[in-house]
Write a structure and sequence with these properties.
Length: 490
């Protein structure tokens, strides 16, 4: 007989782990089953070496606050991202207090967030950005300097052997973080499985079929032995990274029409040389290259994984037709449908700079990539740095009523009209904003239950439903409380 459950989660990443944890807290009696096609969770985009580990709060990422001609800089997007990350911090803090998560240092560590730019134009922009953000309560404590001595104190590797007379500037927010989303994902799933949620690794979902009663028939098979089976669920979440598009297309929901994805891989330079690592404790972002997607903004990051610190620089774009590191070479072709072909072709025509950028990146060898690092760290030595392959990012392409096909940056939830199935497409800020993304999904897909869940959600996220940036006192109180619980006091 076909197994019946309340919820099926497809994919063993931070999104499924977050949604599963929320649902288990809200409805502990619901039967939840999670499927992961690999042998363990957090092996794709949630793996610490497949992402930059930045707790995205728009403290240092310039692409959340771009210059639009001569218009004044608008902090709205940066503030929105920061608000969302504060919800994640509050949720994690509550789970630490409840004993769901281990010691905070196993997944989050205090790491200042910096922005470093060169050239008169970018210096003027960064100063203007600072002047706007310093007035925002969630950006309290942001610092700005054009003084090499000050910047040298913040991040010595940026200033050593720097050419004299070169205009440069930096901002710094001491209250930034480094997050190991792999460790966080594992801890959430460990708690879920200990609480009765079933996790089936080495199980690949093959098809999704809507049933007359409104539920979904999920057909799957084991990756070893290829044994087929099926399960029926009232609600399905597709958190399968780049494969989410393929499964949503398979489901037949009309809401996925017009969507496609463009896969972009990445590499990072990494060093564990203790003499180098000891001189840099920060995440330093700069401006993206012309034509580069926002996810390719160069940054020199402190990473803490398994208690050990290292430095990463990148990303350097690579190309593979696969939607996942462990995907299929046919992914980019198999996504094509009559309804998304034209939008994807329009994206290709409208973004020649992106193609030029990708070609340029593919032509870089190890030495050229270390040369790129030297714009941040003039003293970088080739022998200290090795290349590691990061995860695949599936950038969303979709139909736009006014612009035709557009390349959509960020993350996007696609759900059916009846709320019985939903999936997540896109990339950064992704993991950092998993909690607010899943809260919105709950509101969209469970309208009948949502009002009844709000008291428990407020217990888990104390400022649930409030905007911190509109209340300086509340913003200070909330950030201080989560910093204390998570051990990330600057």
């Amino acid at each position: 007989m076909t197994e019946n459950v309340d919820v099926v989660l497809i994919g063993g990443g931070i999104m499924s782990a977050t949604l599963g944890t929320l649902l288990h807290e809200l409805q502990p009696e619901w039967k939840i089953v999670a499927f992961e096609r690999l042998s363990d969770v957090a092996q794709e985009s949630s793996n610490p070496w497949n992402n930059a580990g930045t707790g995205h709060a728009a403290l240092c990422e310039l692409n959340y606050m771009p210059q639009q001609g001569d218009a004044p800089l608008d902090p709205a997007k940066a503030v929105s991202i920061n608000e969302q990350f504060q919800q994640s911090r509050q949720f994690w803090s509550s789970l630490v207090d409840k004993g769901v998560l281990d010691a905070p240092s196993t997944f989050i560590n205090a790491t200042p967030h910096m922005t470093f730019v060169r050239g008169e134009k970018d210096v003027a922009y960064l100063k203007a950005r600072y002047e706007v953000l310093k007035e925002q309560p969630l950006f309290a404590g942001i610092e700005y300097s054009e003084d090499s001595r000050v910047i040298n104190q913040w991040a010595p590797l940026l200033m050593q052997h720097r050419r004299k007379g070169e205009p440069f500037a930096a901002t710094r927010v001491p209250a930034g973080t480094d997050v190991d989303f792999g460790a966080l994902t594992h801890q959430l799933f460990d708690h879920l499985t200990a609480s009765g949620v079933e996790l089936r690794t080495n199980h690949e979902v093959r098809s999704l079929k809507k049933q007359k009663d409104g539920g979904w028939l999920v057909k799957y098979r084991t990756t070893v032995g290829r044994t087929p089976n099926e399960i029926k669920a009232r609600f399905v979440f597709v958190g399968a990274g780049g494969w989410a598009l393929k499964l949503l297309q398979n489901s037949g929901i009309p809401e996925i029409r017009g969507y496609g994805v463009f896969p972009i891989g990445g590499q990072f330079l990494k060093t564990t040389n203790p003499k180098v690592v000891a001189q840099h404790k920060a995440k330093v972002y700069s401006q993206a290259s012309v034509g580069a997607p926002p996810m390719s903004v160069p940054h020199l990051d402190t990473r803490v994984v398994g208690g050990e610190a290292s430095l990463m620089f990148g990303p350097f774009a690579t190309f593979s037709p696969k939607f996942l590191k462990n995907g299929s070479m046919l992914d980019i072709v198999s996504q094509v449908r009559a309804h998304n072909l034209m939008p994807m072709l329009q994206v290709a025509v409208k973004n020649p700079d992106l193609i030029t950028y990708l070609v340029g990146e593919l032509l870089k060898n190890h030495a050229k990539k270390v040369d790129s690092l030297r714009t941040f760290m003039p003293t970088a030595k080739d022998e200290d740095w090795t290349l590691i392959d990061a995860g695949q990012r599936a950038q969303v392409m979709k139909k736009d009523p006014k612009k035709g096909g557009i390349l959509q940056f960020g993350t996007e939830v696609v759900s059916s009209a009846d709320g019985s199935i939903a999936g997540l497409l896109g990339a950064s800020p992704g993991a950092s904003t998993a909690v607010p993304i899943m809260l919105q999904l709950l509101k969209t897909c469970f309208p009948a239950e949502y009002a009844g869940w709000e008291p428990e959600l407020r217990a888990l996220i104390p400022t649930f439903g409030e905007m911190l940036n509109k209340d300086a006192a509340l913003a200070e109180e909330s950030t201080a409380a989560t910093a204390a619980t998570l051990g990330i006091n600057a």
